[in-house]
Amino acid sequence: MTNLNEYMTAVGERARRAARQMARADVGTKNRALMAIAELIDARQSMLLEANAKDMKSGQANGLDAALLDRLELNEARIQSMSDGLRQIVALPDPVGEISDLNYRPSGIQVGHMRVPLGVVGIIYESRPNVTADAAGLCLKSGNAAILRGGSEAFHSNQAIALCVKEGLEKVGLPSEAVCLIDTVDREAVGLLIRMKEYVDVIIPRGGVGLIKRVSAEATVPVLKHLDGVCHTYIDDHADIKKSIAVAFNAKTQRYGTCNTTETLLVSKGIADQILPELCDLYREEGVELRGCDATRALVEGVATATDEDWGTEYLAPILSIRIVEGLDEAMDHISQYSSGHTEAILTEDYARARRFLREVDSSSVMVNASTRFADGFEYGLGAEIGISTDKLHVRGPVGLEGLTTQKFVVLGDGHIRQ
Amino acid sequence: MTNLNEYMTAVGERARRAARQMARADVGTKNRALMAIAELIDARQSMLLEANAKDMKSGQANGLDAALLDRLELNEARIQSMSDGLRQIVALPDPVGEISDLNYRPSGIQVGHMRVPLGVVGIIYESRPNVTADAAGLCLKSGNAAILRGGSEAFHSNQAIALCVKEGLEKVGLPSEAVCLIDTVDREAVGLLIRMKEYVDVIIPRGGVGLIKRVSAEATVPVLKHLDGVCHTYIDDHADIKKSIAVAFNAKTQRYGTCNTTETLLVSKGIADQILPELCDLYREEGVELRGCDATRALVEGVATATDEDWGTEYLAPILSIRIVEGLDEAMDHISQYSSGHTEAILTEDYARARRFLREVDSSSVMVNASTRFADGFEYGLGAEIGISTDKLHVRGPVGLEGLTTQKFVVLGDGHIRQ
Question: Which of A256, A258, B154, B279 has its Cα between 20 and 30 A from that of A406?
């Protein structure tokens, strides 16, 4: 335990020191580092596959289930997509150093904002080894140092990827300690990491709800978290029927396991009989299990009863809860009560209702006439995302490079003193 | 205890409900409420003075010291400045609802940001009763609900001001519960408030370091805090001597008790002998006690020795520590080690060094050729400030209306589905 403490403190000190160097690195150097890492990952494909084979073997021996093993597995395509991801980050503009709103004040000083890195970002993640490359790339480009703590099941894969990162950094003269992979499987390391306020500026947990809840409950370092996505699509009675059916169908069925998938469909009672029979048939053809309120069940045969628990559940599965509401106000009340604050959409052709929904619904993404499935960093043009925040402070919704930065005030004078 | 729990939960529920109404209030209504509150405060001057007299009387009986009693006291001028402050907030633009960066994406959807209130803001403060009006005004204008917890010594004054706020809100049809003053002096109420994650979105402690540290350590709700201001002014060897002496003098002596006052002066050794003898004379004429490094003491007679503790101390008093450094790098190393991250200034005529200092110093305000005393919300043009954040996340430096808001993504489509 003392050894672990010492080890973690040493990691923190190294990362803090590297963070100062990263903060002043210019964009050309950072981009060359990203390219060098991408090349190393490509060149060492067979080494990465070997390391991953070790993890897969012990995963199988430890009885990991098929889904976990799938997330853990690296193959040629996945390795290629890691290096491609790094090359995409090269193409993104560097947010660091941008000065905005620089204005003269009556005193004569100029005051503005400068965008700067957060400092040291701690990332705690589970099985997918590609997070090692993605997270390192995003932190590097945004001028931060990163402390990475991957899942123990991916130990060898993560080590092999982290070696590419370190060598790439060194190649261009950046400190290899800008990306520190914690190389102990001791679970207590996480407990220490999330309390190292002196060395870590923000913790980003990436993984299941269990991990995120535990980290949030115990961390004293601020946490950027994405808990769950109980997303709603509301079909207003001024909706276009054909468009709405297509969008509501897509929002549920385009993928099931993603946090931006619609889990509850709200339908205004004025339009329910024109929408639900046809839409429910489509869902069923796709194999979606339907659970509804009494009014829904009266309108569509064979729909199971939705309980109060259903309204608050992120299914991540081909299950949909459906509720018929009086209109916009009841829909927004339902959302206010049950939403996790991730993403909600209204489908309507009515200008005033669209405007109210956009203003009044308090979620990280609010949409009009679009599938909730659009809520992610790539679709929004952030280029890449390190997570999706359902918190309100600092950053909300998909978090890209800018979310890994903060702003400081800059003041320019010419010998100005305060009167 | 159960009663207190129930009471606080009821307050939280009321504030949360009111927050939804405040979020959709238009700027005209919010401004009318601010004007109504200002008028009530003016009209009830004698009532406020009476309430304050009760607090002053028990403060004296309880042996509060002169400084505390001074902060507690209301008089005609202070009451006038409360209502003037509210009228100034009327003049500020409403940040809520601003849509920015609305761009078309390749998929055809439009994606942008909308600025929205945080929700419920909890403010914990000490003796000054004017905070009740200031904080209520800023939260109201930014579309938030506020839960206020003032110091027990200002109980009657705060109640009387809060009554004006509530009546002003009601007068224009806004929920009076948008500003809830906790009307128990039970200290445990603070402990509950800072853990009511369900009802409170952010806690802002305003007061001494003791209060802020306790709140930060125990809160599970995110805290926007301003801890202390160990601010530095660095005089580079390419500084203009006359300007630098004037700025460094102002930065220390314009006021002593403020967090943006310079506490440590760093001087490059190449210019120290042209600066320090004259500047130290000026400080001494003003009654400032000087503590310095060995080199400073060799250059200027009668300077006491600065200990390692001095470098990390916010004096809030006519004391200054002085260190002679090799140059820019050593100055920035010193700042990195001892600064509280509040405000630092470089005095130089050298372009490249000014540019490096601006980029590399990691504090909430970084200045060139200006007095650190400028670091506040009024001087920066925020109009008013609810505090100065030395945190990195969410908001940094003086926090005005915008710091009391967050951004959500808005997505506009026309039946768009994800492929």
Answer: A258
Assign residue B99 a region: left if phi > 0, alpha if psi is -120 to 50, beta otherwise? beta
Task: Look at chain A and count its residues.
Answer: 419
Amino acid at B95: P
3-state secondary structure of B321: strand
Q: What is the average per-residue pLDDT within A159-169? A: 97
Residue B233 · residue B347 · CB < 8 Å: yes
The tokens of B146 are what? 């506020």
Closest CA to B47 of B167, B181, B139, B207: B167
Task: Report the alpha-carbon distance of residue A119 to residue A143 in Å, rounded.
Answer: 8
Does B336 contact chain A (CB < 8 Å)?
yes
State the Cα–Cα distance between residues A141 and A33, nearest whole angstrom. Answer: 9
Q: CA-CA-CA-CA torsion for B27, B33, B38, B41, nearest 10 degrees?
A: -160
**Maximum alpha-carbon separation in chain A:** 79
Nearest to A153 by CA among A19, A86, A288, A58: A58
What are the pLDDT digits (tens) for B61-102? 999 999 889 999 999 999 999 999 999 999 999 999 999 999
**Residue B291's closest CA among B318, B316, B273, B268?**
B318
B364 inside 8 A of chain A by CB: yes
Residues 24-43 of A with CB under 8 A from B: 24
* Per-residue model confidence (pLDDT) at position A300: 97
Q: What ipTM score was computed for the predicted complex, to two decimals?
A: 0.92
Helix (H) or strand (E) holding B243: helix B241-253
Cα distance between residue A69 and residue A345, in whole Å: 35
Per residue in A387-402, pLDDT (tens digit) is 889 888 989 999 999 9
pLDDT at residue A227 in the model: 73
pLDDT at position A33: 98
3-state DSSP helix/strand/coil % of chain A, to nearest 5: 45, 20, 30
Task: Check whether A209 has a pLDDT greater than 90.
Answer: no
User: Measured between alpha carbons, how far is A268 from A331 in angstroms, rounded to an integer?
Assistant: 8
CB proximity B187 to A under 8 Å? no
Between B345, B364, B415, which is nearest A369 by CB? B415
Buried/exposed code over B99-119 (b: 16+ C-beta within 10 A; e: otherwise): eeeeeebebebbbbbbbbbbb
Q: Provide the pLDDT confidence category of residue A376 given band limits of 50, 70 and 90.
A: very high
Element (H, E) at A356: helix A351-360
Residue B1 has pLDDT above 60, yes or no: no
Strand ranges of the sheet holding B179-181, from the earlier edge strand across to the other edge: B179-181, B145-149, B120-125, B202-206
Place of tokens 């994606």: B111
Amino acid identity for residue B222 in this structure = P
- Residue B180 pLDDT level (bands cut at 50, 70, 90): very high
Q: Do A20 and B360 touch (CB under 8 A)?
A: yes
The amino acid at B122 = G
Q: Are A92 and A76 in contact (CB under 8 A)?
A: no
CB atoms A418 and B201 under 8 Å: no
Q: What are phi and psi of A134, to 5 degrees?
A: -60, -50
- B193-212 residues touching A, CB cutoff 8 A: 201-202
Q: How far apart are CA A194 and CA A201, in angstroms?
A: 10
Reported in sequence order, the residue ranges of B269-392 that DSSP labels E, i.e. its strands, are 289-292, 304-305, 319-325, 343-347, 365-370, 387-389
- Name residue B322's beta-bridge partners: B265, B292
- For residue A7, give both structure tokens: 């080890």
Nearest CA to B400 out of B17, B102, B159, B115 is that of: B115
Task: Measure the CA–CA gap between B79 and B50, rounded to whole angstroms.
Answer: 12
